[in-house]
What we know:
Elements: H1 3-6, E1 14-18, H2 23-34, E2 38-43, H3 46-55, E3 60-63, H4 69-83, E4 88-91, H5 107-132, E5 139-143, H6 156-176, E6 182-188, H7 194-207, H8 211-220, H9 230-240, E7 252-255
Parallel strand pairs: 1-2, 1-4, 2-3, 4-5, 5-6, 6-7
Keywords: Oxidoreductase
GO molecular function: oxidoreductase activity, acting on the CH-OH group of donors, NAD or NADP as acceptor
Protein name: SDR family oxidoreductase
Amino acid sequence: MSVLKRLLPYPGLRVLISGGAAGIGEVLAAAYLEAGARVHVCDVSEAALAAFRDRYPGSVATRADVGDAAQVAAVFKVQREQFGGLDVLVNNAGIAGPTAGIDAISDDDWQRTLDINLTGQYRFAHHAVPLLKDSPNAHLLHIASVAGRLGYAWRTPYAASKWAIVGLMKSLAAELGESDIRVNALLPGIVEGPRMDGVIRDRAAQVGVPEAVMRKEYLNKISLKRMVSAQDVAAMALFLCSPAARNITGQAISVDGNVEYL
């Protein structure tokens, strides 16, 4: 196989993406579909799922709250029935969590952030691994964040969950290597779009500066002085599902233009 062809994802992959009906998850789903994969997404939003089904009628979309163990188990029942197995799990679902000082963050907000961002990824990996062990091209991809390698003031629950995801990935890569399951994490940086707009707006309000000033501060943190796109993240995800990446595992890969600090 030529080097160029090795850069293409394995054909016919069966892909499951949590939180896949909107945002980065939707862009990931579209990229995998374009590459010829069979895609199943789950999401908590009925509206997002309905829109996703309209845009991608050849895919499967299931409602599930990743914070609910029974609903996660039901997703895998659909996966087995519709696809007969799994080749790629993209553990993507997550929430921003509160923007506040540690003394102002409620126990409920802290716990909800960890339950969705971290425990949700455990739940999906727990159910996915038996299926991945039967795949010849198995890959478990965790979506973390640049906040999984840097401290993030006023966003401690979010940062704590993303650092923990990297630890989960590293541990699973060591655990599952003998089963030929590769495990990696993508750490998106400051991703342009509505979600980042909200983060910037909340951070500006927290520290009492205009939103435009806060946006410039965020760009100044990036070596390339620009935000990344969801398509940048999806491109790396596709590469990691290609023969060229067959020996890449246990890696936390930043797609961020080199964010220097948060």
